[in-house]
Amino acid sequence: METMFQKQIYLERRQKLSERVESGIILLMGNVEAPMNYPANTFSFRQDSSFLYFFGLQLPGLAGLIDIDNGKTYLFGNDIDIDDIIWMGPQLSIYELAEKVGVENTASSDKLQEFLKDASEGGRKIHFIPPYRAENKLMLEQLFSIPAASLKEKASVGLIKAIVALRSTKDKYEIAHLDEIQDIGFEMHTAAIKMAKPGVYERTIAGYIEGIAMSHGGGVSFPVILTQHGETLHNHEHGNLLQHNNLLLVDAGFESAMCYATDHTRTIPVGGKFTQKQREIYQIVLNAKNVATAAIKPGIPYKNIHLLAAGQMAIGLTELGLMKGDPKEALAAGAHALFFPHGLGHMMGLDVHDMEDLGENYVGYDEEIQRSEQFGLAYLRFARKLQPGFVVTAEPGIYFIPALIDKWQNEKTNEQFINFDKVNEYRNFGGIRLEDDILVTETGCRLLGKKIIPIDIENIESVMQNC
Ligand code: GLY
Ligand code: MN
Predict the structure, then answer these.
(1) What is the C-alpha separation between 209 and 293, in angstroms, rounded?
(2) Helices (H), 322-456
């Protein structure tokens, strides 16, 4: 699998970025190695996604700089020395790396401070994005003499908005790549479905599917969630033995060698057959997902799609007797959030939660669509109007979270819409989430990839019972 696009793509992206930002200097810091437990023993290197988008290079210790006013682009970094070659093997020079992505000027890292000092003394605006890693915070603190704690507020809103505008709309090369890597997500999830038998440890399956991701030249796009306690939304514990009739929630994705993500969730019955109670809740989640995805098209705010899914859940849960009263009024009051306390989805691309480092509100909201303060809806990461080329996840879920049930019951929250006696019969149910990755097209949407991970009840049961 390739690790970068053609040079022309990076040239065009930087050109578009310069046009949007209009003037000044853009500084994009690449990431450096991060130690795990002693300096030379590092976490697997992950490049910063915005640096990657505009400069395409996956090596640590680089910085990209675009001098818009003078029409010049620079790559800062240090050539390796003989010691590095002995331990890490031969590497391209900074000049050769720059050439690969169409950058004409190079300089060693120590020249960056000098360059920025001259620029700022000359009264020029230097645009940077908020750093999220300690190493880059320290570096920017030193480069700009701004305390690390203030870097976020001093970051360039113009640059953030320009990057969000460009990265939100995936081009045909990105879409082709995102389509292609869905096969790996399919392989990971179908392996998990087939392995989910009583007596197997969660960690055995988690390790196996992470191994699948690695065997395809990448890794996982976020730490695997694979648990019989799906009511904990981001549960990273994998220590339990699978028990017959438990639900197993698997939320996992592949990150390609180019650092693009997949993100799917399936919830399956250990032993291969849903109980009646599980089947009923599962079908409500699936109906909500189907209603939501059928409505996705350009021009519609994703918040409305979220509310469609939530409304469908309120109808289903009322029919089942877990909620009561008018489902529309329950939805307006936010009563469904006892069961569905998170947002329908997020953008996805170079990050599984795309561009979240730039600020969730810049990615998911705008002047028109502002974040709600209502419990549940407030967690919606992405709410603004959809456009062709956007890639989003749709991931409704129903969870029975004992601590939340107790809190609402004690505080009588939305008690006119919740049948707490019935809800308490589900205290040990766990949680169900179903998630796929969706491309917004000119007229509607489609699932990414060619293969659909089993999702209908009959399909899941049939795959589990025939393996
Ligand atoms: N798949 C994990 C998440 O979307 O938060
Ligand atoms: Mn997701």
Answers:
(1) 27
(2) 327-333, 360-364, 402-411, 420-424
For 7-168, give the CATH class.
alpha beta
The count of other CB atoms within 10 Å of the CB of residue 39 is: 8
Measuring from each residue's beta carbon to the nearest atom of ligand 1, which residues come in under 6 Å?
Answer: 222, 251, 263, 346
251 CA: nearest ligand 1 atom: 1
> How many angstroms separate the CA atoms of 213 and 196, rounded?
18
Is 75 within 8 Å of 51 (Cβ atoms)? no
Site to probe by mutation for ligand 1, drawn from 209, 255, 382, 395 as the one with most ligand atoms within 8 Å of Cβ, is 395
Tell me how far apart the alpha carbons of residues 467 and 461 are, in angstroms, rounded to a whole number: 10
Which atom of ligand 1 lies nearest, measured to the CA of 435? 1
403-423 per-position pLDDT tens digit: 999 999 999 999 999 999 999
Residues of the chain with CATH 3.90.230.10: 172-465
Q: Is pLDDT above 80 for 2?
A: no
What CATH class is the domain 172-465? Answer: alpha beta
Residue 411 structure tokens: 């505080």
Q: How confident is the model at residue 467 (pLDDT cuts 50, 70, 90)?
A: confident
Q: For the whole model, what pTM was predicted? A: 0.97
Total count of residues recorded for the chain? 467
What DSSP element (H or E) covers 167?
Answer: helix 157-168
What is the Å distance from ligand 1's center to 421 Cα?
31
Token match 């989430």: residue? Answer: 433
Q: What dihedral do alpha carbons 237, 241, 243, 246 form, nearest 10°? A: 10
Where does CATH 3.40.350.10 sit in the chain?
7-168
CA angle at 127 for the pair 122 and 131, rounded to the nearest 5°: 130
Rounded Cα distance, 182 and 450, in Å = 8
Q: Round to whole Å and give the CA distance between 247 and 270.
A: 6
Measured from the alpha carbon of residue 234, the closest ligand is 1
Residues 6+ apart with CB under 8 A from 450: 179, 182, 183
Q: Which ligand is nearest to the CA of 226?
A: 1
Contact between residue 133 and residue 312 where contact means Cβ atoms under 8 Å apart: no
- Phi and psi at 268, nearest 5°, equal -130, 155
Q: How confident is the model at residue 1 (pLDDT cuts 50, 70, 90)?
A: low
Strands 41-42 and 35-38: antiparallel
Mean pLDDT (the chain) is: 97
Sort residue 102 into left (φ over 0), alpha (ψ -120 to 50) or beta. Answer: left
